[in-house]
């Protein structure tokens, strides 16, 4: 099976410890035969004895203590063997789980944005936790129980055949019923566990979305609605659990009844064979003890199959993420070094998303050189964010070429490319850590406390000094306790701390006041290092000093030029200027003047 082959491959150098544990499981099963054998010897040779021709009974009482000592020694040895087996399996399973989880997390970190539109966060967390725990459970519990039970059954059957073949065959006569029930159960339970797994994933997703959006829930007074939605998922999960468990209970009485029947058959027919002189009391004692070795593996077979089906379901979900490949492939020998100019050029770039019928960007061409500032305006959905994502290669273009420092971004090593670029967006991601650590996140190895304070000042984040612990203040998850503008300024400081060759600001000042924005513009013009800036904004005040302004409409460049050039032409840019009350606007062009793109 694919799942087992994958799991075996994940063991790598731990495989030898796994097979050692399996060997110890075989030894443990073999030692189970010692107790019935010694009991048989004690019963026949010490307790019952041998009847001599003169009618007297000869009992070998001197064997009692040695035989009991052998029995105790065998049990102690079996305990040690099982300890070694359990320790080995725990070592293997914990390391395998850690390796798989590490690979999964690394793989998730390299996925493109499209991946996270296909998989819900709650579903991914379920795969990283519950599903992965089921994989570990298979390594450390199902595996050794399956091997030990199989060997115990074979050893017991071999030993009992040597004692009395007829009685052994009678006991085995009920085995086909148990095997048939187990086989039928395994054939019908997989869809139930697949459904159960989906219900759990859905419930976790609802909980995650509710927790992440708790402020929105409370703002719209939707607590009752969200509670009802979660309760519906909770009830569906409970029903799926009950359905799967009650499905097993349909087969359990037959399997358990047949297993118990083995004990009754051994006593009934064993007594008859003793009466007929075909067995000794010791043989019957051995059968009474060792019939457990036949019945218990078959009784537990349903449990093992139950867990194994759960493993197949969970492993399939883990494997799906384990082998998921990003659409943004990192070139094998990508460029890691080159002249640091900070230039960006688009040559006939077109971007189309799989779920959209029309391209988001269409034949976009422009260039910006080192130290220049490029501003981008446009209505919602015009392709502004898609354009900047193409620079950082968060997505691949469908046509045309994006060049950074004269090299196609698809030829750059992804990490080397993104190290050159600093980015701050309208939607800020902050971490549950200190303010200082959040700012230093972009350059954790080579930034001092003085540098952190410098970049905070450049980002107009003077408010940090008024926080309870200053730069050591712990920020709540997603920046809880900070205003939108404060979070944006910390994100800007984080981008500046990287000292990037290219700085991308995607609506970064949308939540700050005009006075703060003015200070930010001044600071960005006086950065202590050369930097090309690409600014996406809706405020004219944020873009009017740019060297070049692009206006996007329906994925195309509708206008381009400086503020003075665009403000003097009819079009989107002039309309926005008038709406925002920009001072010093030139007179409108003549009504019969031809409309054209300003270059």
Automatic annotation (TrEMBL):
<keyword id="KW-1133">Transmembrane helix</keyword>
<dbReference type="InterPro" id="IPR039421">
    <property type="entry name" value="Type_1_exporter"/>
</dbReference>
<dbReference type="Pfam" id="PF00664">
    <property type="entry name" value="ABC_membrane"/>
</dbReference>
<keyword id="KW-0472">Membrane</keyword>
<feature type="transmembrane region" description="Helical">
    <location>
        <begin position="159"/>
        <end position="185"/>
    </location>
</feature>
<dbReference type="GO" id="GO:0005886">
    <property type="term" value="C:plasma membrane"/>
</dbReference>
<feature type="transmembrane region" description="Helical">
    <location>
        <begin position="63"/>
        <end position="81"/>
    </location>
</feature>
<keyword id="KW-1003">Cell membrane</keyword>
<feature type="transmembrane region" description="Helical">
    <location>
        <begin position="17"/>
        <end position="38"/>
    </location>
</feature>
<keyword id="KW-0547">Nucleotide-binding</keyword>
<dbReference type="Pfam" id="PF00005">
    <property type="entry name" value="ABC_tran"/>
</dbReference>
<feature type="domain" description="ABC transporter">
    <location>
        <begin position="344"/>
        <end position="579"/>
    </location>
</feature>
<dbReference type="InterPro" id="IPR036640">
    <property type="entry name" value="ABC1_TM_sf"/>
</dbReference>
<feature type="transmembrane region" description="Helical">
    <location>
        <begin position="251"/>
        <end position="275"/>
    </location>
</feature>
<dbReference type="InterPro" id="IPR003593">
    <property type="entry name" value="AAA+_ATPase"/>
</dbReference>
<dbReference type="InterPro" id="IPR027417">
    <property type="entry name" value="P-loop_NTPase"/>
</dbReference>
<dbReference type="GO" id="GO:0005524">
    <property type="term" value="F:ATP binding"/>
</dbReference>
<keyword id="KW-0813">Transport</keyword>
<dbReference type="InterPro" id="IPR017871">
    <property type="entry name" value="ABC_transporter-like_CS"/>
</dbReference>
<dbReference type="GO" id="GO:0015421">
    <property type="term" value="F:ABC-type oligopeptide transporter activity"/>
</dbReference>
<protein>
    <submittedName>
        <fullName>ABC transporter ATP-binding protein</fullName>
    </submittedName>
</protein>
<keyword id="KW-0812">Transmembrane</keyword>
<feature type="domain" description="ABC transmembrane type-1">
    <location>
        <begin position="19"/>
        <end position="310"/>
    </location>
</feature>
<dbReference type="InterPro" id="IPR003439">
    <property type="entry name" value="ABC_transporter-like_ATP-bd"/>
</dbReference>
<dbReference type="InterPro" id="IPR011527">
    <property type="entry name" value="ABC1_TM_dom"/>
</dbReference>
<keyword id="KW-0067">ATP-binding</keyword>
<dbReference type="GO" id="GO:0016887">
    <property type="term" value="F:ATP hydrolysis activity"/>
</dbReference>
């Amino acid at each position: 099976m694919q799942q087992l082959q994958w799991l075996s491959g994940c063991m790598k150098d731990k495989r030898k410890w796994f097979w050692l544990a399996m060997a110890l499981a075989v030894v443990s099963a073999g030692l189970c035969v010692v107790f019935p054998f010694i009991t048989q010897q004690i019963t026949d040779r010490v307790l019952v004895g041998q009847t001599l021709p003169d009618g007297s009974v000869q009992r070998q009482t001197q064997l009692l203590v040695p035989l009991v000592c052998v029995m105790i020694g065998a049990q102690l040895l079996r305990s040690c063997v099982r300890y070694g087996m359990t320790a080995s399996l725990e070592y293997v399973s914990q390391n395998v789980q850690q390796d798989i989880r590490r690979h999964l997390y690394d793989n998730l970190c390299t996925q493109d944005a499209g991946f996270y539109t296909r998989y819900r966060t709650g579903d991914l967390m379920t795969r990283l936790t519950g599903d992965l725990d089921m994989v570990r459970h298979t390594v450390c519990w199902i595996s050794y129980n399956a091997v030990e039970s199989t060997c115990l059954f074979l050893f017991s059957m071999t030993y009992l055949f040597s004692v009395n073949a007829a009685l052994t065959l009678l006991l085995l006569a009920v085995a086909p019923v148990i095997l048939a029930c187990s086989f039928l159960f395994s054939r019908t339970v997989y869809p139930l566990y697949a459904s159960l797994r989906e219900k759990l994933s859905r419930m976790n997703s609802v909980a995650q979305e509710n927790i992440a959006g708790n402020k929105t829930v409370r703002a719209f007074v939707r607590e009752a609605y969200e509670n009802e939605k979660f309760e519906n998922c909770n009830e569906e999960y409970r029903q799926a659990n009950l359905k799967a468990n009650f499905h097993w209970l349909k087969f359990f009485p037959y399997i358990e009844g047949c297993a118990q029947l083995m004990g009754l058959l051994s006593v009934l027919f064993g007594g008859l064979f003793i009466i007929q002189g075909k067995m000794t009391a010791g043989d019957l004692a051995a059968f009474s003890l060792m019939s457990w070795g036949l019945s218990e593996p078959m009784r537990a077979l349903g449990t093992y199959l139950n867990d194994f089906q759960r493993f197949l379901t969970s492993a399939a979900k883990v494997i799906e993420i384990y082998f998921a490949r990003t659409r943004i492939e990192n070139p094998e020998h990508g460029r890691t070094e080159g002249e640091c100019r900070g230039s960006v050029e688009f040559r006939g770039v077109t971007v189309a998303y799989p779920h959209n019928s029309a391209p988001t960007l269409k034949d976009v061409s422009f260039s910006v050189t080192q130290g220049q500032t490029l501003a981008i305006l446009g209505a919602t959905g015009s392709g502004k964010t898609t354009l900047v994502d193409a620079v950082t290669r968060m997505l691949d273009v469908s046509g045309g070429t994006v060049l950074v420092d004269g090299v196609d971004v698809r030829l750059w090593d992804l990490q080397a490319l993104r190290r050159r670029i600093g980015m701050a967006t309208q939607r800020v991601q902050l971490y549950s850590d200190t303010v200082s650590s959040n700012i230093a996140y972009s350059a954790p190895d080579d930034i001092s406390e003085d540098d952190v304070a410098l970049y905070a000042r450049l980002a107009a984040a003077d408010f940090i000094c008024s926080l309870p612990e200053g730069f050591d203040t712990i920020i709540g998850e997603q920046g809880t306790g900070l205003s939108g503008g404060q979070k944006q300024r910390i994100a800007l400081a984080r981008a500046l701390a990287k000292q990037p060759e290219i700085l991308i600001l995607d609506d970064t000042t949308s939540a700050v006041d005009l006075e703060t924005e003015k200070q930010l513009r001044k600071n960005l013009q006086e950065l202590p290092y050369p930097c090309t800036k690409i600014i996406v904004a809706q405020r004219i005040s944020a873009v009017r000093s740019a060297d070049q302004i692009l206006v996007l409409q329906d994925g195309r460049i509708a206008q381009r030029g400086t503020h003075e050039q665009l403000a003097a032409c009819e079009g989107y840019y002039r309309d926005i200027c008038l709406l925002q009350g920009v001072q010093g606007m030139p007179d409108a062009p003549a009504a019969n003047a031809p409309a054209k793109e300003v270059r």
